[in-house]
Structures are given as C-alpha cells and as structure tokens.
Amino acid sequence: MLSGSLVALITPMDEQGAVDFSSLQRLVEYHLAAGTSGLVVVGTTGESATLDMAEHLSVVEAVLTYAAGRLPVVAGCGSNNTRHAIELARQLKAIGVEWGLSVTPYYNKPTQEGLYRHYATIGEASGLAQILYNVPGRTGCDLQPTTVARLAHQFGICGLKEATGDVSRVESLRSGCGHDFALYSGDDASACDFMLRGGNGVISVTANIAAAEMALMCRQALAGDRDAALALNEQLMPAHRTLFIESNPIPVKWACARLGLITNSGLRLPLTPLSPAGVEAMEQALNRAELIKRA
C-alpha cells in the first residue's frame, strides 16, 4: 500500500503549450530529493483533459524513465467514457504502470449503480490496479462510501482519493472497506485531519511547491504526532487555500515557475494565465507559508 505524500504532479508546458520534458525531469528529481512518497501523473492537475492519447502515454513513459524505479508512479486513467477508460488503462499497463487513478465520470452524472458498473467493467477488462477518485466539485458526481465499499478489493480496486474535504467520511470508508484499503485525501486543506482520523496519505497539489514540507507533515500525521503535524499544516495553510484561488492547475503552475521548479507556467486553453490579482495573492501566500525563500 502506498502512503504519505503523493504529489498530483503538474505537466510542465512551454509558452505554446507543448510538454516541457526537461522541466518534467527536474520535477521528478525535486520530489526524489524532498521525500515525496509517489508521483501521480496526468491526473486532472496534470491537465489530462487537454492531452491526446499519445501525449498522455508519452508523459507517463517519461516519468517512468526519469523515476527509474526510485519512486512509485500512479497514472491518470479516468474518463466519462467507459470504453475509453478501458483502452487507456490497458495502454498504461502495457508500458509498465502498476496503479491507475480513475476519476468518476464527469458530466454524465451516473447513478451509484452506474458508478459501480463503470469501475467494475474497467477493472475486469484492463487488469490495472485502480485508485478511485471522487471529486464532485469538478465532476458533478459523488461516489458514495457505500459504493466504494461494494467495489473495495474487487476488480483490482485498491484505494480511493477522496476530494470532498469531508473528513467525517473517513470513519465510514474505513469501516466499509477495511484497514488494508488505501484512503487518500484529495483536499490539501483537510488532509492532515484526514490522516489523523485514519487515512493513509494525500494526493497533493501543494506538494508541487512544498514537497519536503508535505512529506514531513504526512510522516508526522501517520505517526500520530498530532501537534507537530497540525503546526506544520497551519504553516502551509495559506498555500493550501490560495492554490485554488483560480482553477487548478493555474495557480500551482505559476507558483512552480515563481519558485524556479519549472521554466515557465505554460497552460493549454481553455485554461488561461493567472490573473494579476491571483499573482498578488499567490505571492503573499508563498511568503506566509515560508516557501518564497527558495526562489
């Protein structure tokens, strides 16, 4: 079971929107040095929605090469088209991916039975181990704990990224899924509390810019060092909150460039560069979280 701080890795791009593989390699080395527990690539933070299949696979292959077995790699494989999700999962498995992150079908708004069948079908057809991803704020679809419990330990389903920010779900998820089912927060602001309540880690946007701090906070929380974990989390709270002042990954890409982690903050439409007001807010947040000293 993977645990600790898993980064929801951005996909660096140049000003024309082409993938910047040189910056991507630098990010992998940054996370290796900082103690990040795993790399989650081409998820929603990695702009998977605007990468075609060939680009998606090339980014994953590159990260696998750069990591060279030194860090676990989880690859985004979600879709609101079950057939496409199966094909993507199969392709990822064929290039050596062990774990896939599969977001709930967006826009379709399936029932809980539809969600169950979607994931069961993907797992049975692809053979790829899946971490489910529940983020109703982005998809309009909420994967309920009872449905997660139905899916747990079947069809290669081994975990859940729970991004509702509702830490009260940890108890029901743990009760329904057992202690050998991985539970990851997908909400940085509440991730510390999520782990203190029994979660296994976080798939983190903040870790893109505060990798060592997030890794340490996770180690403290998972060890039960409540006071130390909460204190470090409070230091990082300005970053947690301000990274979502505009649609993710707009702010985090700007912040990565500001801290010198990537060459520039290139995005693909329909995402647009961080606004002047957003730049001012992020600059203040980086200072308050004591991250600007690295720049």
Explain what this protein looks like in three dimensions:
The protein has a single domain (4-232), classed as TIM Barrel, CATH 3.20.20. The protein has twelve helices and eight strands. The chain has helices at 21-34, 53-67, 82-94, 112-126, 136-139, 145-151, 169-177, 188-196, 211-222, 226-242, 250-258, 276-288, and strands spanning 4-8, 38-41, 73-76, 99-103, 129-134, 157-162, 182-185, 201-204. It has an eight-stranded parallel beta barrel, surrounded by five helices. Strand 1 (4-8), helix 1 (21-34) and strand 2 form a beta-alpha-beta unit. The longest helix is centred in the C-terminal third of the chain and has 17 residues, at 226-242.
Please state the CA-atom Rg, rounded to the nearest Å: 18 Å
CATH class group = Alpha Beta
Biggest sheet statistics: 8 strands, parallel, barrel
Average of per-residue pLDDT values: 96
Q: What's the assembly state of these chains?
A: single chain
What is the SS-derived class?
alpha/beta
How much of the sequence lies in strands comes to 5-15%
Helix content: 40-55%
CATH superfamily: Aldolase class I
Indicate how many domains the architecture comprises.
1
Task: Measure the end-to-end span.
Answer: 34 Å
Going across the biggest sheet, name each strand in turn: 1-2-3-4-5-6-7-8
Number of strands: 8
Main location: cytoplasm
Catalytic activity: L-aspartate 4-semialdehyde + pyruvate = (2S,4S)-4-hydroxy-2,3,4,5-tetrahydrodipicolinate + H2O + H(+)
GO molecular function, one term: 4-hydroxy-tetrahydrodipicolinate synthase activity
Protein name: 4-hydroxy-tetrahydrodipicolinate synthase
